[in-house]
Each structure stands twice: as C-alpha cells, then as structure tokens.
Amino acid sequence: FSAMFAATPIEMATSNALSSRSIALPGSQLLRLDALPETDEECTVVMLKAMAARITSLQSELTVSRKRTVATTPATDSSSSGSVSKKAKVATTPDRCGMARKRLATSVKASLKGQKFFGYGTEREAKFDDAVTEEELRALFLNGDAKGTLVQPTPTNNPKSNVFIIEVGGADFEHIAGMQGQKLKGELWRQGGIGRFGAVKGKKLGSIDLSVRSATIKWSKNQSKLSATVRVATASSGAYGGCDDSDDDLSCGYGLF
C-alpha cells in the first residue's frame, strides 16, 4: 500500500468534513481519500473493510440508477413499434430478396450446363433446390408485383399443408429472377443418328438462345427448402450461334434431315 497512501488519513467526522472524498469509519471517524496511509503499518483492516463496503455501495447505487433510467425511458407504443419493425423489414427484405433472385438466375444457368438442345422447340428442365424463408418466398412469388399463382395450400386445396406449390409463367419467372435483358443460352447440338444423307454423329454446334416457358416452385415450411422446376425451350426465332462458313447445311441445321 505504500505507493498509494498519503498522510493524515483520519479525522473526526463533522458535518463539514463528510464528503464524497471521505469514508466513514467506526467511532465517528473519517478516512480521507485524498490523504491515504503511506505505509503498510498505517493501513488497518478497518480501513480496508470500509473502502470495500463503500465500493460495494457505489456498485449497488449504479445498478439502481441504470434500472431507473430504463424504467423512465418513454415506452414505444405497439403501433409505432410495429412501424419500426415494418421499416426494418422493408430495409432488409430487398437485400435478402435480391440475393435470392440472383441465386434463382444462377441456379437456372448452372442446371442447364451440359444439356443438349437440337433445334427450335427443344424443351429441357432446370431443377435445383435453395434455402429461403417464407418471407422471402412470398416476397418473390406472391406479394406485391409478383405474378406467381398459389396452387397449395388454398382454402379448397390442402389448406393445412406445409408444402407450398406455386406456378409461375415464363416471362414472370424471368422478371422475378432478374433475367430480363439477359440472354439465356443453351448448347446447340446436331443430333446423331440416321438422316437422309446417311449416318451422322452428334456434334456441338455452338449456343442458342433460350426462353423460360414456365416454372413450378415447391417450398417446404418444415425445412425452409425451395425446390424449383424451370422449363426452358429454344427461342422461337433464329437466335443461335456457333456456325461458320465451313459448316454445311446439315451441321448448321437442327435435328435429323
């Protein structure tokens, strides 16, 4: 204690002497905090107990003061609380839905890799799963300007089902997934087999534009799991690439001739 104590630590308690810079001791004495003992011999157990008691008292006062501050803070009524909650959702939902939209588009493209398209009208399915909340599901496919049609659960079709089934048109799905203006491409192939010019081998010719025809969305409430089946087809007009002047009519055509 020698490094932290000063001289003349004790004086008789009077109304003038009692202050926040002193601690009351037994026998109407005060321990002055600005003149603490300089040596171990001058420091007594009574002094230490008095200081410990004062510290404990200050901690209790601080706790009570904090509780009073919280109790006297104006309470937010339920309507404004709901308003704040809604604002928070409005602030976060677009970001989360934006990520979900990107995943939809990315998953469609990834699912189509390796699938072969042989000409106009060729249809394929892109199937994938994703984890989304019910809030995200409704925001994407059912609420606002979303154009999905809820097939299940409805008042007339499995109203208590925990599996949502939503049908979405092709253009609407492309809008939901943010794919408008983006060219969806598939692998254009010449189909192998026996044609009018004899046997031909299958050959990759390049790429061809695709469009989404429709989509079926299934979502499990128990697992928060979305399972999508997106049906795509080659575009209805000649938007394909990969052929050059060295290819003959058969190579640049579709299917078998």
Report the uncertain regions: 1-7, 76-92, 238-257
Mean pLDDT: 76
Percent of sequence in beta strands: 25-35%
Fraction of residues in helix: 25-40%
Most strands sheet: 8 strands, mixed
- Count of DSSP H/I helices: 5
Oligomer: single chain
- Which structural class should the secondary elements be placed in? alpha+beta
How many distinct beta strands?
13
Distance between the termini: 104 Å
- The general outline is elongated
The radius of gyration is 39 Å
H/E topology pattern: EEEHHEEHEEHEEEEEEH
Give an overview in words.
The chain contains five helices and 13 strands. It is an alpha+beta fold. It is elongated and about 120 Å long.
In short:
The chain has helices at residues 45-72, 78-112, 134-141, 170-176, 249-252; strands spanning 10-12, 22-25, 29-32, 116-117, 123-131, 149-152, 163-169, 184-190, 193-195, 198-200, 203-220, 225-234, 240-241. It is an alpha+beta fold and 257 residues long.
Topology of helices and strands:
Layout: E1 10-12, E2 22-25, E3 29-32, H1 45-72, H2 78-112, E4 116-117, E5 123-131, H3 134-141, E6 149-152, E7 163-169, H4 170-176, E8 184-190, E9 193-195, E10 198-200, E11 203-220, E12 225-234, E13 240-241, H5 249-252
Parallel strand pairs: 4-8
Antiparallel strand pairs: 1-3, 2-3, 5-12, 6-7, 7-11, 8-11, 9-10, 11-12, 11-13
Which keywords apply here?
257 residues, alpha+beta, 8-stranded mixed beta sheet, 3-stranded antiparallel beta sheet, elongated
